[in-house]
Automatic annotation (TrEMBL):
Pfam families: PP-binding. This is Acyl carrier protein. Residues 1-79 form the Carrier domain. PROSITE patterns: CARRIER (PS50075). InterPro entries: ACP-like_sf, PP-bd_ACP. It comes from the Bacteria. It comes from Chitinophaga oryziterrae.
Length: 85
């Protein structure tokens, strides 16, 4: 899966599942603030990621994810790891 495809897929489900304004989804923007995430929303986000990309998410991985770019990088790394198996 290419980087652009990951970004487009990710943005599409963030807009759909979290009712995010697509104009606010920018690589440098804060994921938690733009999506207005609380602790239950993170659980929903984990489920959506697992369903869309087919890998298990460790909730503690989110501690290092601040921006959308961090999120894209995380998903891209995990997708590549899955493809190598």
């Amino acid at each position: 899966m290419e980087k652009n495809e990951i970004i487009l897929t990710t943005n599409a489900f963030l807009v759909e599942e979290f009712e995010a304004n697509p104009e606010n989804i920018k690589p440098e923007a804060n994921l938690k603030i733009v999506l207005d995430l609380d602790s239950l929303d993170y659980i929903d986000l984990v489920v959506v990621i697992e369903n869309n990309f087919g890998f298990k998410v460790n909730p503690e991985d989110f501690q290092s994810i601040i921006t959308f770019q961090d999120f894209y990088d995380y998903v891209g790394t995990r997708v590549k790891q899955k493809e190598l198996v």
